[in-house]
Amino acid sequence: MSIFKNSISFFFATLFITFAHAARFNITNNCPYVVWAAAVLGGGRQLNSKESWPLDVNVGTTGGRVWARTGCNFDGSGRGSCQIGDCSGLFQCQAYGVPPNALAEFALNQYLNLDFFDISLVDGFNVPMDFSPTSNGCTKGITCTVDINGQCPAELKTPSGYCNNPCTVFKTDEYCCNSGNCGPTTFSEFFKNLCPDAYSYPKDDATSTFTCTGGTNYSVVFCP
């Protein structure tokens, strides 16, 4: 009986740890078209308009991101391609997507047990986005809903009508920040003026990183 009780105790302890170490990200497509949501870590999901994808992300995850892919076509084995946001031709993403794409980025349960999250336009812009906490009394969310594609500078405009990032276009240290010494540019200010709470270039930390207590759940909405 003692072995049985110990086994039961271990089972519930393991179950508690599993749930305690996951944050729920509810990813919703409010766009009037199909979006292939992508997540690292998490894979991918086709979302028709108004559909949602509940994704549990382990506490301690760093370098996490969610983005929207469009114009995708996959075969039965999950291989194919996307016009925007493609991740090595896989339906279930295992690596980051190809720009341009707006990103919901996060690191969970880090310094002082805080979650750090942001919307980044460092890789450009494709689909409007809202990234907001939904629990733990954390209420400050981030939105980027302006028609950036329609106002995109000609130098950054892609043939498909999306707005690229200057690093991809010009490939210089001024825009790519490879040396770590870069600052704001005319192009980063274009993004910042339209979405003040979003990252506009890699060193844009002070006004673009938000925190919640670890264990918070989140909502990511495309076309909010």
UniProtKB/TrEMBL annotation:
<keyword id="KW-0732">Signal</keyword>
<dbReference type="InterPro" id="IPR037176">
    <property type="entry name" value="Osmotin/thaumatin-like_sf"/>
</dbReference>
<protein>
    <recommendedName>
        <fullName>Thaumatin-like protein</fullName>
    </recommendedName>
</protein>
<keyword id="KW-1015">Disulfide bond</keyword>
<feature type="disulfide bond">
    <location>
        <begin position="31"/>
        <end position="223"/>
    </location>
</feature>
<dbReference type="InterPro" id="IPR001938">
    <property type="entry name" value="Thaumatin"/>
</dbReference>
<feature type="disulfide bond">
    <location>
        <begin position="144"/>
        <end position="195"/>
    </location>
</feature>
<feature type="signal peptide">
    <location>
        <begin position="1"/>
        <end position="22"/>
    </location>
</feature>
<comment type="similarity">
    <text>Belongs to the thaumatin family.</text>
</comment>
<dbReference type="Pfam" id="PF00314">
    <property type="entry name" value="Thaumatin"/>
</dbReference>
<feature type="disulfide bond">
    <location>
        <begin position="167"/>
        <end position="176"/>
    </location>
</feature>
<feature type="disulfide bond">
    <location>
        <begin position="152"/>
        <end position="163"/>
    </location>
</feature>
<feature type="disulfide bond">
    <location>
        <begin position="87"/>
        <end position="93"/>
    </location>
</feature>
<feature type="disulfide bond">
    <location>
        <begin position="72"/>
        <end position="82"/>
    </location>
</feature>
<feature type="disulfide bond">
    <location>
        <begin position="177"/>
        <end position="182"/>
    </location>
</feature>
